[in-house]
Task: structure prediction
Amino acid sequence: MAFEQDLLELLPRLRRFARSLTRDISDADDLCQMALERALNKRDQWQTGTRLDSWMYRITRNIWIDTVRAAGRREHVANDDEAMENVAGDDHQRMESRMELNDVDRAMDRLPLEQREAISLVLVEGFAYKEAAALLDIPIGTLTSRLVRGREALQRELGEAA
Result:
């Protein structure tokens, strides 16, 4: 039962990661559901004492890659106004915050999937470089390069939006 409870606690982070991959809230929910189903079916493959979040991120990413390949497309992009419904502050602050989040969201949309994955894992989810590189099955140098290029692209995009 602890396994299932740990999965439930991980769900908000997993959903956020899925959202960064799919760029669509409905697709992210579907991706999370598939990942949870696969994890429950392959529970015996998870090693107690290892990081469940890393295992789940890898499952989620692999399902997404399979889905994209099967559909014959590189990535799916969509807007998500619903995710910004709960921005705090008065109406003026809420509108400014929403516009800034929309700018960031659009800038993230323009990044290649590889850079978006790296930024999502390291800057949003807080994984160490070594962990993120292992999760993506790439060398740390490649991860660092993707982060640098992604950050630069975001800064350019957000600088133009200001």
In short: The chain is about 75% helix and 0% strand. The CA atoms of residues 52 and 161 lie 38 Å apart. Helices lie at 2-22, 25-41, 52-71, 91-110, 113-124, 129-136, 140-161. The first helix runs from residue 2 to 22.
